[in-house]
Amino acid sequence: xxxxxxxxxxxxxxVEFDEGPEDLGFQDxxxxxxxxxxxxxxxxxxxxxEAVGEVTTAVYLECARCLxxxxxxxxxxxxxxFRRGSEPIQWQEEIALNDEDMKTSFFQGDFxxxxxxxxxxxxxxxPIKPLCKESCRGLCPRCGGxxxxxxxxxxxxxxxxxxxxxxEIFSEKEGIEHGKS
Length: 181
Ligand SMILES: [Zn+2]
Ligand SMILES: [Zn+2]
Description:
Layout: E1 3-5, E2 12-19, E3 31-32, E4 36-45, E5 48-62, E6 69-84, H1 89-98, E7 103-107, E8 111-113, H2 114-124, H3 162-177
């Protein structure tokens, strides 16, 4: 839990953290490969409390092309204003219009829950189509083998397909032009 008592926060505090995923309320929506570490600076500003920080961790994701599980290192930063009270819907819309980059959260009582902000931040940092590497060639559409791992032994071109025939004609021609016998 990364909850901070801000009732007697004078100026600002800076805290380093090192949390397990379950401490931040993760259940099994993500498989973590590392703990969640970072630092946060909490300061009193006019009209609220600002929490600025950065987070590093790593998760296991499945490549959208080759379906291989891989370790995805994640680094993200956050900047949230906590305002006292409950969320006024109309005001929230105004905030969204006026200040798209600044996130606003609401709190009641003496504590702000920075852990919940970090949890949301991590979730939105996960790519929708994760790739083990940018150049991943994925699975062979015919045999289902992972091409990059050499699992596919299919012949390069299917004999008799229009493209293969054309290619043969061209390579023969090329052979002649280059004086190949
Ligand atoms: Zn891949
Ligand atoms: Zn194949």
